[in-house]
Amino acid sequence: MHRRLIAPGALAAASLLLAIPASAAGFQPGAPGIGDPYYPYYGNGGYDVSHYDLRLKYQPQSDELEGTATILARTTQDLSRFDLDFLLDVSEVRVNGAKAAFTTSGQHELVITPATPLPKGTPVTVVVRYSGVPSTKSAYGFTTWHRTPDGAVAADEPESAWWWFPSNDHPLDKATYDVSVAVPDGTQAISNGTLQSTSSKLGWTRYTWRSAKPQATYLATLAIGKFDITTGTTSAGIPVINAYSKDLGDNDGAARASVERTGEIVDWLTGYLGPYPFDSVGGYVPNTTTGYALETQTRVYYSPKQFASGSNTSVVVHELAHQWYGDDVSLKGWKDIWINEGFARYAQWLWSEHEGEGTTQELADYVYASHPADDAFWTVKPGDPGPDNQFDTAVYDRGALAVQALRDAVGDDAFFAILKGWPRDHAYGNASVADFQAYAEKVSGKPLAALFDTWLFQPSKPAASAARTAAVARAATAPVQPRSWKQIEATNFVHQG
Ligand SMILES: [Zn+2]
After folding, report:
1. Pairing mode, if any, of strands 188-190 and 175-184?
2. Around Cβ 73, how many Cβ atoms within 10 Å?
3. Based on the structure, what is the number of domains in the chain?
4. Exposure of 61 by Cβ count < 10 A (0-12 exposed, 13-18 middle, 19+ buried)?
5. Where is the signal peptide (predicted)?
6. Which secondary-structure segment (H or E) carries 401?
7. Per-residue pLDDT at 448
8. Is 434 part of any domain?
9. Beta strands 123-132 and 204-215: pairing type?
């Protein structure tokens, strides 16, 4: 996770919602948002993207990015006009080969009017030529484009695409990616998936990456800088590609001692979550000043600060668990964030037990006991936390407590069948908290509405009786802090100093 630099204020551009006369009978503009109540203008309506082809050139010294995005989509309505989410400067748009009119609107809408209206259900190819200096662009008063001394990084949640490619920016519209980036010789470009080729010409080296399974826009990542790249394979034969900034200083050893365990941890997670869902895995540690990590698909983003106190395999477990819970199975709406974070946190608890640093039960007891009933912690509902609390600690810790309560209620056999079956059952798709409850009920054969309501949807501390029923908080007095606790908490955000 994930920190925007400044929280968004009240939404502008309400006029976008007003009906606009269609340019042909029955043809209507696509909505400027995909319909997520947390973020009304994120994503767009009227079409569904299947593939992004991004051909980019980046100059680290000046932060100048130029690119051509070729977007393959299909219309989902009779479409007179549609939006992409984007902040850089556009010079030309073509739709199905013909020049299209375009303008900007709201905080991050690129509004495109094709020469000919687009009938519902037809394939559409959109080509956007653009350039700009991403670090000079903001929306709602914030940026998530991170400059580094030797380049830049796009990795944030829920927003990072706006600064480097035009998209339908919401997890509901997943697509495959080819990302090809030219950078000055001696500099590397890192993205998701497998490295298809590198070539050098006239002082520029081009890196071409492919992410061949459906991927949410916020899980697409780009890092440019001077990196050491290491390679390996998991026991199951999945290629591992990791990258480390050559400028990590004192954090270099701890970063490598953590991220180089990626293959081992993928093998271990496979035992709980089923086969790894993608054809490549790894992580990268650029020399950013941020404090978080993010589950960017197949290539996890780690801040150097994650390793300032020494190695931390727990954060590697968290981000790799997301490859199943969040990346393979993505949320339907941002209110479903528990599907991602509750389970990535619970994977850390399982790792803690594996490492002999505290059992899942001890961690659950500790979370339950260490927050008194009047603690604001319990006012956050992990099942629908609201946009301001989407990444609150409670989504993680109370979220994992809910997973432990589920385990206690259905028993280990059903619980581990659910844990492994969910990614298989919803592979490469989207799902909600309600879908998860229905799945857990189907596998366990037990009604679970009351349990989900108590642990995920009530703005109060579950009563001791509920905790005892769930076997959470068996310890009568405040339990000792498990040894793994500090590393687990450091996953949320490592603060300055
Ligand atoms: Zn997470």
Report:
1. unpaired
2. 24
3. 1
4. exposed
5. 1-24
6. helix 393-410
7. 98
8. yes
9. unpaired
| pTM summary value | 0.94
Q: Rounded to whole angstroms, how far apart are CA atoms 290 and 303?
A: 6
Residue 239 lies in a domain: no
Q: How, if at all, do strands 204-215 and 239-245 pair?
A: unpaired
Contact 357, 363 (CB under 8 A): no
Is residue 29 a contact partner of residue 167, using CB atoms and an 8 Å limit? no
Q: How far is the CA of 227 from the centre of ligand 1 (A)?
A: 25
3-state secondary structure of 135: helix
d(CA 102, ligand 1 centre) in Å: 36
Residue 176 lies in a domain: no
Residues in the chain predicted with pLDDT less than 70, given as ranges, are 1-24, 468-478, 493-497
| SS3 sequence of 423-436 | HHHCCCCEECHHHH
Q: Are 291 and 308 in contact (CB under 8 A)?
A: no
Rounded distance between C-alpha atoms, residue 288 and residue 151, angstroms = 10
Say which CATH number the domain at 452 has: 1.10.390.10
Q: How far is the CA of 453 from the centre of ligand 1 (A)?
A: 22
Contacts (Cβ under 8 Å, ≥6 apart) of 360: 346, 349, 350, 352, 353, 404, 407
Which structural domain range is residue 387 located in? 330-489
How far, in Å, is the centroid of ligand 1 from the Cα of 146? 19
- For residue 437, give the H/E element and its range: helix 433-444
Can you give the pLDDT at residue 17?
Answer: 45
What is the CA(488)–ligand 1 centre distance, in A?
A: 11
Rounded to whole angstroms, how far apart are CA atoms 438 and 441?
5
Q: What is the pLDDT of residue 6?
A: 46
List b or e across 209-224, with b for residues whose CB sees 16 or more CB atoms inside 10 angstroms.
bbbebbbbbbbbbbbb
pLDDT at residue 469 in the model: 67
Instruction: State the pairing for strand pair 330-331/430-431.
Output: parallel
Report CA(321)–ligand 1 centroid distance (Å): 9
* pLDDT of the residue at 11: 41
Ligand 1 center to residue 340 CA distance, Å?
A: 6
3-class secondary structure, 360 = helix
Tell me how far the alpha carbon of residue 334 lies from the centroid of ligand 1, in angstroms. 13
Residue 298 CA, ligand 1 centroid: distance in Å: 14
For 240, residues 6+ apart whose C-beta sits below 8 A from its C-beta are: 230, 231, 232, 233, 234, 262, 263, 266, 280, 281, 282
- Cα–Cα dist 83/168, whole Å: 8
